[in-house]
Amino acid sequence: MSVASRMSTVRQWALCGALGGALLTGCSGARASRVETGDFLAIEDVTVIDGTGTPPKTHQTVHIRQGRLVWVGPASDAPAAAGARRLTLPGRVVTPGLVMVHEHLVYQGSPRQFSRVAPEYLRLYLAAGVTTIRTAGDVDTSDYAVADAIASGALVGPRLIPSAPIINGPGVPYFPATTDPAAAAAAVRAGLARGVRWFKIYANVSPVVAESVVVTAHRGGAKVMGHLCSLTFREAIALGVDDLQHGWTTVSDFTPGKAPSSCPDPRAMLLGLSELDIGAPEVRSLITAMVRSGVVLTSTLPVFEVQVPGRPPVPTTVLDYLAAEPRAIFDEYWQRVQRDTSAWPRRLFQRSLAFERAFFEAGGLLAAGTDPTGRGGVLAGFGAHRELELLVEAGLRPLEAIRVGTWHGARALGAEQEFGSIRVGLRADLVILRDDPSRDIRNLQSVELVIRDGRTYDPQVLRAGLAGQVAGPQAPRFP
Question: What ranges make up the beta strands (E) of 304-436?
Answer without folding.
Answer: 365-368, 430-433
